[in-house]
Specification:
Elements: H1 5-12, H2 16-23, H3 30-43, H4 49-52, E1 61-67, H5 77-87, E2 91-97, H6 101-113, E3 118-123, H7 129-136, E4 141-145, E5 154-158, H8 160-173, E6 179-185, H9 189-204, E7 214-217, H10 224-232, E8 240-243, H11 246-258, E9 268-272, E10 286-290, H12 292-307, E11 317-320, E12 322-325
Parallel strand pairs: 1-2, 1-3, 3-4, 4-5, 5-11, 6-7, 6-8, 8-9, 9-10
Antiparallel strand pairs: 10-12
């Protein structure tokens, strides 16, 4: 069986990132260098020369990485990315990744072996070994959505703080005071920013926030619909709810229907992210919308600049605009 950098990392007790740095001729601590060289001799590791020559042999191929748990929501962005890439003679290929670190390492090796010129990835809540290996190998990586400051990569994401602020202020300006939200995992970058904006908006509007009305996801198995029901069964329930993602909005909308609660008469609702069904459901849903064309086009344009050697403002932190799409799901209380 061929020896890999995973075997070197396990044998030395060092991280994959450290081993990858050494193999790509980057500086590591002297004691780590010695340990890695001893392990290479002992295990008979042979470096992948194809991967090491990646930067000097362009394949004109870009990899687009998506979490395997992701729904089709982000897929619409691929069209905008490919439009920019095709104009410049590049082709793209889609890969999915999971939470399994072994699968992530294999994915990174696959990309290196296939000589991809760069990577655009929708990042997730959890640390990804593939991103770390690719960044350490000096493959240009553009991350979308979640921000991980531990990685030497460019990030493009929507202005989530602004989105949260617009949602909270809109509900407050409609004279709601019992305002709640249903969110994803509290430690994710996008949720943190949306929450921060939302709470700042309530404060600026003079509305007292009530943590009892705020529901964060605890585990991946938790259903947004059940958490919506828990909020609506409180002795004094909220009069308005904001759902911090498209999937949570759909789950919550279904649960509200099941409970026989009328919108917006008994409950006002605002969502994050737009969907083709949101303008046609009853009532049409007011949302905070991200601009996938801008995100995709900017990600592809920036990646091409990095591939061509332009390192200005690296690592870039780009926030794209959001907008409030007003429909009929929020009621003025007075």
């Amino acid at each position: 069986m061929k020896v890999t950098i995973v075997d070197i990392a396990e044998d030395t007790g060092l991280s994959l990132s450290t081993v990858s740095k050494y193999l790509n001729h980057k500086n590591v601590l002297p004691e780590n260098k010695e340990a890695i060289e001893n392990s290479i001799r002992k295990l008979g590791y042979t470096p992948n020369r194809i991967a090491q020559s990646l930067r000097s042999k362009s394949s004109h191929t870009v990899a687009f990485l998506m979490p395997s748990s992701l729904d089709e929501f982000w897929g619409r962005m691929i069209t905008h990315i490919e439009t920019v890439l095709r104009k410049e003679g590049y082709k793209s290929i889609i890969y999915y990744y999971s939470m399994d670190s072994g699968q992530q390492v294999r994915l990174a090796n696959t990309l290196l072996n296939n000589k991809v010129d760069g990577v655009i990835a929708i990042s997730s809540y959890y640390f990804n070994q593939a991103f770390s290996i690719l960044c350490d190998s000096e493959i240009p990586v553009i991350l979308i959505d979640q921000v991980d400051h531990s990685l030497k990569a460019d990030f493009i994401t929507s202005d989530n703080y602004r989105g949260g602020y617009l949602a909270g202020r809109y509900l407050a300006d409609h004279h709601h005071e019992r305002i709640g939200f249903v969110a994803g995992l509290s430690y994710g970058y996008t949720i943190k920013e949306r929450t921060r904006g939302f709470l700042d908006a309530l404060k600026d509007a003079g509305v007292q926030s009530n943590p009892e009305y705020f529901s964060y996801q605890i585990s991946s198995e938790e259903e947004g619909g059940k958490r919506t029901e828990n909020l609506l069964r409180l002795p004094v329930p909220p009069t308005a709810l904001c759902f911090f993602s498209r999937s949570l909005c759909i789950d919550g909308f279904q649960k509200i229907r099941e409970l026989g609660i009328k919108m917006p008469g008994q409950l006002s609702v605002i969502g994050f992210d737009d969907d083709l069904i949101f303008p046609v459901i009853d009532p049409p849903l007011t949302v905070i919308s991200q601009d996938f064309q801008i995100i995709g086009s900017q990600a592809a344009t920036l990646l091409l600049e990095r591939i061509r050697g332009n390192r200005d403002d690296f690592p870039a932190r780009i926030l794209t605009p959001v907008k409030l799409v007003e429909r009929e799901s929020v009621k003025f209380l007075r």
